[in-house]
Structures are given as C-alpha cells and as structure tokens.
Write a structure and sequence with these properties.
This protein has 275 residues and is of the alpha/beta class. It is 30% helix and 18% strand. The protein is globular, with a radius of gyration of 19 Å.
Amino acid sequence: MVYASRFLRVTSPFMSGPDVSQVQQQLRELGIYQGEVDGVYTPAVEVAVREFQQRNGLDVDGIVGPNTYQALFPGYKGSWGPLQLTVDVDNRTLQVRRENKVIKTYPVAVGKPETPTPLGDWSIVEKTVNPGGPFGARWMRLSVPWGGYGIHGTNNPNSIGKAASHGCVRMFNEDVIELYDMVTIGTPVKITGTAYTGRILKLGAEGNDVGDIQQKLKVLGYYTGDVDGVYGTLTEQAVSAFQKDQGLDPDGIVGVLTYNALQKIWDIIQGDIQP
C-alpha cells in the first residue's frame, strides 16, 4: 500500500474530496465560511482557513495541516460520550474506551518491522466511507504529521492479527464499520508498544529515516553531503538552516514540528495532492 497524507491548500486544479468538505462544513458552523460545502478547496476556503488560523493563534498560511485539523475538530462529546482509542501494536488489538473503561476490543493488523505503526498520541482527522481496495469498507486518517497513516478495513482479512501493513492499523471490515459509527473527527488515538516510527533525529543517529531527511533537504537545497543515512554535522547544519527559514527553533534536531514543516514544503514542491 502506498498512501500519502496531504495538506489541504489552493492548487491548480483545485484540490477536492471529503476531507475538504469536512473542513468547509466545520468552518460554516463556526460562521467563518459562507460558501457551499462542495468539497473543493478554492481561494474562498483559503481565506476562511486563514481567518480561523489567526483567531486560534496558528501559523496563518491558509494550509490545513495537522495543527489546523486538531484545532478545527477538538473532540467529540456526542451520544457515546468522550471516546478514546488505544492501539497496542505488541498485542495487535484496538480498544475503545469511555471514561477509561474498555467497552470494546478488536483484533487488528499493524505495521511490519520495516514499516512500523507510529507510536504516540494522535487523533482522527479524516473519515471516508467505502474507499475500497486495500482500505476496505472504511478509512479513518490519523494526525501523524509525517505520513498517511490510518485505521481502515482490508481486502486481506488473513492479515488481521499480524504485523503485515505499511504502518496503518487494519481491521476486519465488519469491525471497522462498527468502529466508524462510534467515532468522529477529533477522537484521540493512543498507539503503544515497542515498534515506532517518526523518532527524534539528532547528531549521531543512523537509519533509513535519516536518509529520507537528507534526501528531502538535498532537493530543497539545504544539504550538500552524501545521502548515507548518517546524521552528521552537515545534516545537523542543513536541518538548522531549514528550521530557521521556517521560523522554528534552529536546534538541528528533527522532531514533530520539523517533520511537519518539512512534509508540508515537500508536498508543495512535489505537487502532491493525493489523499
């Protein structure tokens, strides 16, 4: 499976999809957007997003990324009450909790060792009915800022209970349909276990994730060394320069904010609008 999360923004042609509709609808309910909820990210939507970002102390760039998603959809307190999801990648289970009480447990498939499921505290930022193919009956994208990870159904039910995915959490289709109807945008998701991705990168780190950062920074003109997966002085200097240009603390360490900023710029220069 190859799936990339996207930053909603004005492009040519305009980006469109259910994620755009959700943003438009929320902005309408907040009284910031007066246009149609048609799923098309037009300049009028960008103006509304900028207004929302300014009101909420966010980076005013007109781009809907993880921080803006989380501010737009802060949580759900509907008939189910505040729900939390917990994914245990070691035991390969997903638990639904309400007020710290487990009300449902599902078996899941998680990421393979080379493409692990990202540990951390995330939230659901997008929901789609019947995406089909490897996504099965339902898709719920997570707020992981450096990749397109989600909870979804599958066309390979034999994979459930195994470390088999590219980092996503797979469920039986009948289970993901039930879960989809319980949760909404903003539902918190805690992923725990011993495997992880998106680790903090700093001087001395080695691995494919370091090589990926080097490659991106090289294309952006910040890094001039070899793409060797070794976080040396040149990599640290390149990261610091990038952070400075993005208004971040130029500490030379790749954390969540730097991942987020780098992915946003990368999506824009690559023209990546795939959901």
